[in-house]
Specification:
Radius of gyration: 20 Å
Strand order of the largest sheet: 3-2-1-5-4
Helix content: 25-40%
Structural class: alpha+beta
Number of strands: 5
Shape: elongated
Distance between the termini: 61 Å
Order of helices and strands: HEEEHEEH
Length: 135
């Protein structure tokens, strides 16, 4: 009987070990915008999440725990914030739209479980969803 329980325990342990996901790299794109009247940068983040055409940019903006839009001193300030959450810099480029520069910074993070990529990051849409409704 002890041998049977021992074998069952080993098989169960092997199944649990195989069920865990292998670490893999995930990506996110930081989009930073400024205008001539402000010195702060507004950041939105793209994980590849589904958004509507009309709300795509605003709903991806980073917000604090109270739902207020986060402002950063620069793109490097935003990257330092992401670095504290385990993200690493990959690549950057700028797109000029009219008189406004939009900064695109690609970040990556090694994760081993579902949802680990967005841990610690709160977007406007996440905040609205957590409040149980529309803004």
């Amino acid at each position: 009987m002890k041998k049977v329980l021992f074998i069952i325990a080993i098989v169960f342990a092997a199944l649990v070990a195989n069920a865990q996901q292998k670490p893999h790299k995930v990506y996110a794109e930081l989009l930073g915008e400024t205008n001539l009247m402000r010195t702060k940068v507004t950041i939105s983040i793209d994980f590849g999440q589904e958004t509507t055409f009309w709300q795509q940019h605003a709903q991806k903006q980073l917000v604090d725990a109270q739902g207020r839009e986060m402002k950063f001193n620069s793109m490097v300030d935003a990257m330092n914030y992401m670095g504290t959450l385990g993200w690493e810099f990959e690549q950057a480029y700028v797109v000029t739209v009219g008189q406004q520069n939009v900064y695109h910074w690609l970040m990556s993070k090694l994760v081993d479980e579902e949802g680990a990529a967005t841990q610690g990051i709160n977007t406007k849409q996440n905040f609205i969803d957590s409040q149980g409704g529309e803004e």
